[in-house]
Structure formats: structure tokens, C-alpha cells
Design goal:
The complex is a heterodimer.
Chain A (H helix, E strand, L loop, with lengths): L2 H7 L1 H22 L2 H27 L6 H15 L5 H23 L4 H27 L4 E2 L5 H24 L1 H11 L1 H6 L4 H27 L1 E2 L1 H4 L3 H13 L4 H18 L4 H18 L3 H31 L1
Antiparallel strand pairs in A: 1-2
Helix pairs in contact in A: 3-7, 3-8, 3-10, 3-12, 3-13, 4-5, 4-10, 4-12, 5-10, 7-8, 7-10, 12-13, 12-15, 13-15
Chain B lengths: L1 H32 L6 H17 L7 H27 L3 H27 L12 E4 L2 E4 H23 L1 H11 L1 H6 L4 H26 L7 H15 L4 H21 L5 H15 L9
Antiparallel strand pairs in B: 1-2
Helix pairs in contact in B: 1-5, 1-8, 1-9, 1-10, 2-3, 2-4, 2-8, 2-9, 3-4, 3-8, 5-6, 5-8, 6-8, 9-10, 9-11, 10-11
């Protein structure tokens, strides 16, 4: 029985089977697991959306955005402000649109310039958002923070799962399309891409806005489980840095890399962060540096490397075996 | 109105000189090593917190940089000589190196910040030094503001002269311009890169000492300092060392005017507004070339 050949010939059906298993696991989880497990899974799925959508822009073009929290927070605030007026499921696309529009504005100002200006601009953007929203809140509403009516955790789980499916499919098809190739060529060599006839600015700004829209939608879905939000909670830098860590750890080139990274760190974050906060964050820093230094393509970069090495070993073993047979006869 | 604005501007210049020092270090690190060092604020924090710790054991804050400076210089030197050098050797293109270096710096930021947090906790550390008031030209100033301004200005001028006049400074500028050719001319570029990075860390640490003379410090102060340094660096022109100092003073004045006449919460939003306008009008910064 040759396992490697079996895997390579039945690759598609195996993948589909695996995805169906995950689907069944997520859908049936609330039946046998407790409330807290459902919450952990919801958090993990939120991070999947953030990491995948972050890598969709930054992983392909090489423009490092350090501000996922800005768009995520916009989503949370959209929910906080509109929860009384509109139904939950309508607010999700609105949150996405708000983030989309804001990202479009930021992108138009900064993405015309070289990548590093964009990075610098996004780095402090979260602080900017926090302070200006605090100011507006006290000025316009004379208050600090908002209560959000909680929503049943199962509904939230299924909603975020729906968003994960949409995000992952969108990322998959964008990466495979002409458009994705244009993005990759921008990441490879922007000037060359421009000479090839790609409108680089439009491509960059649009994909930045699209990836931010997913973050905004994820923010809307996160809001009800927070119960109370203010600018410091909604625009916490933590939401900026976690998706980056996850995507880098998992690998930005392959879609499954970001998903694996988000699942691992999302789970660890939810289970460990509360008790050992400082050591947990210190460990994150060490892992991040180590991954970039030793595995620049992340965990996903390990797979082809291992395949190559293992494949070589297996082939050699097989050849060795055949050689022995020949010698015996 | 004039009596209100003039002191604000002067205090702004005092405050801005520290920002300038901070940004000079970052500008040097990006200009020479091509590392957008978002760990910069953490070096400020280390400088500030170590100054406080030393002052508890009776060491004068003015002497603290003598001890802390070489320490942080060594740390910066090592970071460049090991981590960033290794990344550069492996990166397929300069752009890929900048991206990877940024992410690695991001990890280093976490490491430094949380080691400091585990060691010192999150409490406020008030180590005011020379906090008495002195009258000068009919205006009242806190003494430490004048002292920090003098130190920052002297150090800024010293670094500028070092870069523009000395042999080492010429080697640094040559490496920033074109590392390949500089190497062919006999410059030990790896050493120069590590030296520049270390010098940037030293400037950040000294800025931290100056900050700790004026305000209470804490282990979480790094991030906001990085944000300010980055904004100042872009305003002054990325890689332009004198430009960062000038832009630092400008930002200092603006922050004081906004805080004094309008609303303290809005200082960061105003920086951003300035940044946006500048990026649209003059992307190379105030004193930037090209």
C-alpha cells in the first residue's frame, strides 16, 4: 500500500472529506459541548477571518498593514450604534461597508506612495481612531462606551462560521484569479507590474478595502459577545497584532497556513491569556521572531520542504529495496 | 493671547527636542539598515525605566545615560549583527527584507516589552528630577525642561557633526547610499550597519532618560513613543537625520498648542491630519531629498 501515491491521486476527495468533517464538527458542536467551548470556537473563527483577510492584502502585495484593529473596531462600533435601529443580520454587511469605505480613504492617501509610508501610517492608525472616537463620544453623546445586547452564542457561532466560509472562498478565488496574479506581481516587483499594464494603485486600494470589509463584518459579529464596549476595548491593539502573528506563523503564501495559525493561536489565546498574560505575550514575541528567522514561509512552508525530504527518503528506500532484489536474483 | 501662546511654543520646543532625538535614532536605523524599527519605543521605555531603577539606588539621572547608553547600544548592535543581518542574507529582495525585518522587529517589541513587564510590572514610576520652577524672561519654566532641551540639542548636534564630519560618519553615509559600493571601497558594512543600529538604540535610550526626568514612566509607554517617532520621521523625511530633529521640534510645538489651546485628546489626531496633508503634498518629508 503506497500512502504517498494514494494521497496524491485522491487529493481532491480527501480534501473535500476533511472539509466536510470540519463542517460537521462546527455545526454539531453546540449539541454536545458547553457554552464555553462554543465561545472558544467562535473566537477562533473570528481570528480565522482576521488572519485570512489580513494575508489577502499584506501577504500577497507585501504591503504590511499594521491596523486590522482599526477596521475590526469600526465594525464593533457600527454594531454598538445601530443595534437598536436595525436587525443584526443587516448590520453585518453595513459594518463591512463602513470598513470598506474607510479603508478606501486610507488607501487612496497612502497607497500611492511607497510601501513603507503605508506601514507607518497604519501603525498609529489604531491610536488615532481610539482617541478621535473618545473625543467624539464625549462631545456628541456625552458618554463613554456603549452597552450591547447579547445574542445567543449559538447564533453567533453559526454567523461567524458563515463569514469564515465567505471570507475563505473569496480569498481562495481572488488569489487564483487574474486579480490575484496582479497582486502577487505587485508583491514581487511593483515597477515591473506597472510596466506590464497593471493599474497598481487601483488594485492595491481595492484589495485593501475588500480585506478590511471582512474585518469590519467580523467586528460586528464580535460585538454582542463583548456586552460593553468603549473605544479602548473596540480598538485594542491586540486585534491588530494577533492576526499578523497568526498569518506569519502559519504562512502567508498558502490559505491553509493562515487558518492553521489562527486556530492554534486563537485556541491558545482563549485558554491561556487570562492567567499568564505577560508570559503568553512574551512567548508570542519569541515565536514570531523564531518563525521569521527560521521559517520565513511559516508552517505552511514546512509542508513542501518535508514532502521533498520525505519523498527523497522514500524513493531512496524503494530504490534500495529494488537494488537488493536485483542483487539477490 | 500672545502671552499664552509664547510659553506654549517655548515649552513645545523643549518637548520637541526629545521627540527629535528619538526620531533621529529611528531615521538612522531606517536610513542605513533599512529596518523600520518598531521596537524603537521599547528602547525609550528601557532607557526611562532603567533610569528610574538607577535613581532608586542613588544614581543621578544625568549620569544614568553613561551606564544605560552602552548597554542599549550593545543590545541594538547585537540585534542588527545577528537577527537583521541573518534576515538580510536570506531575503530574496530588498523589499522582502524590509517586510521580514518589520515583522521580526514586531516580535522583538513584544519580547522587550513583556520582559520589562514581568520584571517591573505595570505601575507608574515617578522619578522627577529638578522639578522646581525657575523664572526666565518673565516666564516660569520647570528646570528639567531646560536641562533636557540642552542635553537633547547638544546630543543632536553632536550626532549631526559625527555623521557629517568624521570618518566613521562618512562610512555610515556611504553605506546608507550604496552598501555594495561602500563595501568595495573597504568599508566594513556589517560593522557599520550594526554600529548605526546601536547608535539609534542609544539615542532612544537617552531620550527615555530625558522623558523620565519630566514625567512618570511605565513599562507600557513604548508604543506611543514609537508612534510619535514614526510620525516625526515621516514628517522630516525618511532617512534624513537633521530633518527628523527639525520635525521633532515642530511636532513638539504643535502638540503643546493643541493641548494648551484646544483639547489634549486631539494631539494624535492632529499629528495624523498633518501626516495626511504632508503625504499628499510632499511625500518626501520636510527636508527629504529626491
Amino acid at each position: 500500500m503506497d500512502i504517498t501515491r494514494f494521497i496524491s491521486t485522491h487529493r481532491k476527495s480527501l480534501l473535500v472529506g476533511f472539509l466536510v468533517l470540519i463542517l460537521i464538527f462546527i455545526i454539531t458542536l453546540p449539541l454536545y459541548a458547553g457554552e464555553s467551548d462554543v465561545r472558544v470556537l467562535t473566537t477562533v473563527l473570528i481570528y480565522v477571518v482576521l488572519a485570512v483577510s489580513w494575508a489577502l492584502f499584506s501577504g500577497t502585495t507585501g504591503y504590511m498593514s499594521l491596523a486590522p484593529a482599526a477596521f475590526f473596531g469600526l465594525g464593533i462600533y457600527t454594531m454598538a450604534l445601530l443595534q437598536k435601529e436595525l436587525p443584526f443580520f443587516l448590520i453585518i454587511p453595513i459594518g463591512g461597508l463602513v470598513a470598506f469605505a474607510f479603508a478606501l480613504l486610507i488607501g487612496l492617501v497612502t497607497l500611492r506612495l511607497r510601501g513603507i509610508y503605508f506601514t507607518i501610517f497604519t501603525f498609529g492608525l489604531v491610536v488615532f481612531m481610539t482617541e478621535i472616537i473618545q473625543y467624539l463620544e464625549t462631545r456628541l453623546y456625552n458618554r463613554h462606551g456603549w452597552d450591547i445586547t447579547p445574542i445567543d452564542s449559538e447564533i453567533l457561532l453559526y454567523t461567524i462560521f458563515g463569514l469564515v466560509v465567505v471570507t475563505v472562498l473569496a480569498a481562495y478565488f481572488i488569489r487564483r484569479s487574474r486579480y490575484g496574479l496582479a497582486l502577487l506581481s505587485i508583491g514581487g516587483n511593483e515597477e515591473a507590474a506597472e510596466h506590464m499594464g497593471i493599474n497598481t494603485t487601483r488594485t492595491k486600494v481595492l484589495i485593501f478595502a475588500i480585506s478590511s470589509a471582512f474585518m469590519g463584518a467580523a467586528g460586528v459579529i464580535t460585538a454582542p459577545s463583548l456586552i460593553y464596549v468603549n473605544a479602548n476595548i473596540a480598538f485594542s491593539l491586540f486585534y491588530s497584532f494577533m492576526p499578523i502573528l497568526m498569518a506569519v506563523f502559519g504562512g502567508m503564501g498558502q490559505l491553509y497556513g493562515q487558518i492553521v495559525g489562527a486556530v492554534i493561536f486563537g485556541y491558545l489565546e482563549k485558554t491561556l491569556r487570562a492567567q499568564l498574560y505577560s508570559y503568553f505575550m512574551l512567548g508570542f514575541g519569541i515565536i514570531l521572531v523564531a518563525v521569521i528567522f527560521f521559517l520565513p514561509n511559516g508552517i505552511a512552508g514546512l509542508v513542501p520542504m518535508l514532502q521533498e525530504k520525505l519523498g527523497g527518503v522514500i524513493r531512496r528506500l524503494r530504490k534500495g529495496g529494488q537494488g537488493e532484489q536485483h542483487a539477490n536474483t | 493671547m500672545a502671552e499664552r501662546i509664547l510659553p506654549l511654543i517655548i515649552v513645545g520646543i523643549f518637548q520637541g527636542s526629545v521627540y527629535g532625538l528619538l526620531a533621529m535614532g529611528l531615521s538612522l536605523q531606517y536610513g542605513v539598515c533599512r529596518v523600520l524599527n518598531i521596537t524603537h519605543g521599547e528602547f525609550v521605555m528601557l532607557g526611562a525605566v532603567l533610569t528610574f531603577t538607577l535613581s532608586l539606588s542613588g544614581i543621578n539621572p544625568l549620569l544614568a545615560p553613561v551606564i544605560i547608553g552602552p548597554l542599549l547600544f550593545g543590545l541594538g548592535f547585537l540585534l542588527q549583527a545577528t537577527l537583521f543581518r541573518g534576515l538580510k542574507a536570506r531575503a530574496p529582495s530588498p523589499a522582502a527584507f524590509e517586510g521580514n525585518a518589520l515583522l521580526a522587529a514586531f516580535g522583538v517589541m513584544y519580547i522587550i516589552q513583556y520582559i520589562a513587564r514581568i520584571r517591573w510590572g505595570g505601575r507608574l514610576m515617578p522619578s522627577y528630577y529638578l522639578a522646581d520652577i525657575v523664572s526666565f524672561l518673565g516666564m516660569d519654566f520647570v528646570k528639567n525642561q531646560i536641562v533636557t532641551f540642552a542635553i537633547a540639542l547638544a546630543l543632536g548636534v553632536a550626532v549631526y557633526l559625527f555623521l557629517s564630519r568624521s570618518r566613521m560618519g562618512r562610512a555610515i553615509r556611504a553605506t546608507a547610499e550604496d552598501p555594495g559600493t561602500a563595501g568595495l571601497m573597504g568599508v566594513n558594512t556589517n560593522m557599520i550597519l550594526a554600529f548605526s543600529f546601536g547608535l539609534g538604540a542609544l539615542l532612544a535610550g537617552t531620550a527615555g532618560t530625558l522623558v523620565s526626568m519630566k514625567t512618570a514612566v511605565r513599562t507600557s509607554m513604548g508604543f506611543s513613543n514609537t508612534v510619535i517617532a514614526l510620525i516625526v520621521v515621516v514628517l522630516g523625511g525618511l532617512g534624513s537625520v537633521p530633518g527628523s530633529f527639525v520635525a521633532g521640534i515642530l511636532i513638539g510645538i504643535v502638540s503643546m498648542l493643541v493641548a494648551g489651546l484646544w483639547e489634549p485628546v486631539l494631539t494624535v489626531p492632529v499629528y495624523y491630519a498633518m501626516l495626511m496633508v504632508l503625504l499628499l503634498v510632499r511625500p518626501t518629508g520636510i527636508l527629504g531629498k529626491k
